[in-house]
Amino acid sequence: MTTTTAQNPTPVGSGARTQYRAYAHPWWRRLLLTREAAVIALVVIVAMWAYSNVPYFGETDTLKYLLLDSTTILLIALPMTLVIVTGEIDLSVASVVGLSSATMGLLHEHGTGMALACVISLLVGVVCGAFNGFLVGYVGLPSLAVTIGTLALYRGIAVGLLGTTAVTDFPKDWTSKASEVIGSSGIPVVMVPFAVLAIVFVLLLHFTPFGRGVYDIGLSTEAATFSGVSAKRTKLVLFVLTGAVSALAGIYFTLRYGSARGDNANGLELQVIAAVLLGGVSIFGGRGRLPGVIAGVLLIGVLSSALRLQGVTVNVISIIIGLLLVVSVISTPVLARVSDLVARRRRARRASSVPQSVVPQ
What we know:
The protein is mostly helical.
């Protein structure tokens, strides 16, 4: 036996399946009419405009330095996306970059081999991330408060390790690898390991039970716990991943500029968070996709590079990117409200078109 209602014309009863509104549309609409697709399209439009109107933008050297400058943000944005999807945040990532750089410089200064120095620097990032994850996941402290504190803690340790000095005598064969390009394409070799990491994180977030648990936690931690998701363990793993990838970014940052300092990447966390939010991730959690985040990072990079080539100052570029971010954040609730309003009107029209039952006298 099945029944229908005016509000829900879908049959309800034995053998009936629930239909989700998001999957009621054709696949092309679900793929193309999204925030992520809009950001990707905007990257293409801005790049085409810059290629046609900005001098030197189409040269391979411009592409090379655009990608080299964006690599640190691209790397950290991968795990940061998963953290923000759970409704948490990590403001200590730039300090972990600085601490990793300082650790690497200190070890090299005392005669440690480069390979071992890199491994130890990565382990330092893992420890930093585990400390954040333990306080947030198992102690239950707010991630904003925890990572503001560890931001200062890790940065203070980093500056304390090297003081005001900088280690710059790294081997040329190591520093040159950070800036090498693939043939004459202008694409840096460092894009290869980034692409591998990006594929790993895309698979982890979008195609595994762990990734579904990440979204569940962002929507409702209590509901996720009742459904069998360990919110504590998931958050610990995510903060460990964030610390490890931030340390990897610190190693790249050190080799890219040939300098290890405790204040390296100061303020970078704001750029990472801006790119993640611009890519369509909700600051309230439960929503976001990695392709959109990668496009958000590239959008900031392309826009900044084009404006610099036109002689626009850094302050003006920051204002433009800030306005773009504000519009991006505001658009989410506005579009959601418009979508709900349209859905309510459709349901009202459907209800009015259903004939009323005739009751026999």
